[in-house]
Design a protein that fits this description.
0% helix; mainly beta; single chain; elongated; two-stranded antiparallel sheet
């Protein structure tokens, strides 16, 4: 429940009429967060599907497609980690990079 009030800032807080009660509003909010893992090697370009779902509060992460769909507008925070296996005998120059897209539009990368 959220209480709505009107405050008349031309008055001091202790003055009569400074605050007028309007109503209570029943506000429903829900958390959205997830923690997924890939338990096997992945060697392809494209969206990364995941093998393990530790948390998926709000159900916004699709494990099979690897796509997170925001259920409501707002700011979201993403954190990513990974490891690359590089053979000691390798002479290749290897990079590790994960791109981030919003509605199929590139917005940044991790790596």
């Amino acid at each position: 429940m959220v209480e709505s009030v009107y405050c008349d800032f031309t008055k001091l807080p202790n003055d009569a009429g400074f605050q007028t009660w309007i109503a209570f509003k029943d506000v429903k909010s829900s958390s959205v967060y997830f923690y997924v893992q890939r338990d096997t090697d992945y060697y392809q370009n494209g969206t990364i599907p995941y093998d393990v779902e530790k948390l998926n509060v709000g159900g916004a992460m699709n494990l099979q497609t690897g796509i997170f769909t925001t259920p409501k507008q707002g700011k979201y925070f993403f954190s990513v980690s990974g490891k690359a296996r590089i053979p000691a005998s390798s002479t290749w120059i290897i990079t590790f990079r994960i791109n981030l897209y919003k509605n199929s539009e590139y917005v940044g990368f991790f790596g």
